[in-house]
Design goal:
Layout: E1 5-9, H1 17-25, E2 28-31, E3 45-50, E4 53-58, E5 61-62, E6 74-75, H2 80-92, H3 98-106, H4 116-130, E7 136-139, H5 149-159, E8 164-167, H6 177-182, E9 186-189, H7 211-218
Parallel strand pairs: 1-2, 1-8, 2-7, 8-9
Antiparallel strand pairs: 3-4, 5-6
Length: 230
């Protein structure tokens, strides 16, 4: 039987290349933002490479209570877009393919939502188009998932007719693989090692930066430095 693969992850702000490889490896990618928002995490920030080393691009988010969900979390200032465009311009204007992609990337900062989840999803979907990733992307709230986190993942697989769940390696700490086996759902673990280096504007080379670094530096050859984007 042909494998139908899904993956489930919280939205991140302009994520790194491994995030998009996970999407590309999946038939359906579920954005799971109905969980607690965590401060100083990938939800609202990511790294860029600059002449002064790695620096954070952070969207300021208002945390009103500890139980606040990601999809409920709102931006706390109005001028973050201008600052991020300025930082990207300053760090990547000398990148080989910056001029080719700057307009399409910078246009994503216009007329943005005040919700971090919606901002993240708009960037993720746009970057998937640039990388020609055809994976279906849905919101977990469409699935009305119930139970603990293991049962919610299993329920998502069932509702999406998936017989394979792709997981990041960090989930090995909590995923109850026996429960998936009982439901005839295979687990595939992502391996984020072995990525090829490419020419970055500044050194030393860093893999864990935003995907925009790869796009600005390698352009249409970006998929040659990824594992599952074809």
């Amino acid at each position: 039987m042909e494998k139908r693969k899904i993956s489930i992850l919280q939205s991140n702000y302009i994520p790194w290349k491994g995030y998009f490889d996970l999407i590309a490896k999946s038939d359906v990618f579920v954005i799971y933002d109905e969980v607690q928002y965590t401060k100083n995490d990938w939800r609202n920030r990511n790294l860029i490479s600059t002449q002064n080393g790695l620096q954070w691009l952070t969207i300021p988010v208002r945390q009103e209570n500890l139980g606040q969900k990601i999809f409920e979390s709102k931006i706390s200032t109005n001028n973050w877009q201008r600052k991020h465009i300025s930082s990207l311009q300053g760090s990547y204007s000398r990148a080989a393919h910056f001029n080719q992609f700057k307009e399409s990337i910078f246009s994503l900062y216009e007329n943005q939502s005040n919700l971090i989840s919606e901002i993240n999803i708009s960037f993720i979907k746009a970057i998937c188009e640039i990388l020609e990733i055809k994976t279906q992307i849905i919101d977990s709230r469409e699935l009305n998932l119930q139970g603990d986190r293991n049962m919610r993942l299993i329920e998502a697989c069932k509702k999406l007719n998936a017989n394979s769940y792709i997981s990041g390696p960090a989930a090995k700490n909590y995923l109850q693989t026996n429960l998936f086996k009982e439901e005839s759902i295979d687990i595939e673990w992502m391996d984020y090692s072995g990525y090829k280096e490419y020419k970055q504007v500044y050194g030393p080379f860093a893999h864990g930066v935003t995907i925009l670094d790869l796009i600005f530096n390698t352009g249409n050859n970006a998929k040659n430095y990824m594992k599952y984007v074809v």
